Amino acid sequence: MNFLKPYASLIESELQSLDLPESPFSLYEPQRYILQNSGKRIRPILSLLGCGVCGAPIEKVIPAALAVELLHNFTLMHDDIMDQAESRRGLPAVHVKWDVSTAILSGDSMFVQAFLQLHKLDNDIDFKWMHEVFTDSINRVCEGQALDMEFEGKTEVSVDEYLKMISGKTSALTSASLKLGGIAAGTSKDKVNRLGIIGHSLGVAFQIQDDLLDVTADAEKFGKRSAGDIYEGKKTFLMVHTLERCTLQEKNWLQEALKNRPLSDNSVKAVIKLFDKYGVIETAIEQMEHYYKEAENEVETFDDSNYKADLMNLIKFLKNRDY
């Protein structure tokens, strides 16, 4: 992952330089807290690479890359409240360290900070187009989250419904991240659309992979409880495929089991046996590889450059991750 260090260092440096006020403390300190508890910064790095593969200096897209990262962390802050999650990246979630009201308000302010970053873009960049792509991605993320929440109360979710949900919740922002890079570079609509396809495919592949790792990864590496999605009764890629393939008797049992969250240890073991019986793990691997390949094929359509090579290496890194 050394090839990503220059991009990650640039993003970290810019994030640390954000001019967040000291007061009100309860508004801005939670923002500094969640930003310092750094993730992989994949989305802003995608913005840099999207700009680079289109032949422009990556510095042009830095404000939009920061906007993407601020927006992503805003969604995490609010997601943790909705999911009643106790921790984030190994540390107490914002609403736990402070309280729910503080987390909501601080998250709302972080949302505004993301938009303020867009106003720092160079004047020669198509701001209207940039703003449309950014706001559309936010709406699609909200739609995906709403669908995910609705799934909790549904006994049956189709594969198409699941894919629609992750296309919003997970893929919308990865797609927008790359597209913003292309717009900042002043490239053609065709290239921006191709960047969007790469981001969409990466997002879908990443989420299917997450669902897969829930039952196959080393829990310590993954940072989550093994089979945690099953215990919580989530409608993952594996679960919706199993519900479509199993017998009526098995389906009735599974739908009943999913109503009683968290599931018992015995129920979780029984669900995993159904996964094995109906080959849904293999299906998940096939689909994950399909979407990663789709992303790679689109990257190949761009002119050769160091940024193209790094984008391809990033895809390979994500495809081979085990956590």
Would you mind describing this structure in some detail?
By secondary structure, this protein is mostly helical. It has one domain (2-319): Farnesyl Diphosphate Synthase, CATH 1.10.600.10. The protein has 17 helices and 2 strands. It has helices spanning 5-16, 25-36, 42-53, 62-83, 94-97, 100-118, 127-152, 159-169, 171-185, 189-216, 219-222, 228-231, 237-245, 248-259, 265-277, 280-299, 306-319; strands at 87-88, 91-92. Strands 1-2 form a two-stranded antiparallel sheet. The chain starts with a helix and ends with a helix. The model has no long low-confidence stretch (mean pLDDT 94).
**CATH topology group:** Farnesyl Diphosphate Synthase
Helicity, as a percent range: over 70%
Termini gap: 14 Å
**Poorly predicted runs:** none
CATH superfamily: Farnesyl Diphosphate Synthase
Number of H/I helices? 17
Structural classification: mainly alpha
Radius of gyration: 20 Å
Shape: globular
How many domain regions? 1
Question: Based on DSSP secondary structure assignment, what is the total number of beta strands?
Answer: 2
Mean pLDDT across all residues, rounded? 94
The proportion of strand residues reads: under 5%
What would CATH call the class?
A: Mainly Alpha
The CATH architecture assignment turns out to be: Orthogonal Bundle
